[in-house]
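note to self — DONT lose this again. spent like an hour looking for the file last time. sequence + predicted structure for the chain T wanted, 113 res
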Amino acid sequence: MTVRVTHSIEEMEAAQDKLFNQGLLSSLNLYSTSIDVINNKIVFSMPDSSEAEAKPEIEKLIDPSLIVYDIQKLSEKPDVVGSIAKIDNESHRILAGGDPQTRACPLDLRNER
């Protein structure tokens, strides 16, 4: 079966690399970026407090037709509270430990850059 896509994975990775090469992932306070191969888009996750500044900067470097934003509202009552207990570079996971009455929560970062 042949699937036709608008943008190749190489094209999307190159667009993503533009942000990394300029150090914008941290300076724009982005949580993550990933490639959605099903929808043929680059997904940028960020807190709502970064949206106004980050979107124009991202769109200067990357064609907006390639982009999907995942804007996450900041809350006074976060879903996960804790601290990083362990970083496993081999499996690309972070183990976050929280309240002793809650279990550690592994965050899967395999599809994140």
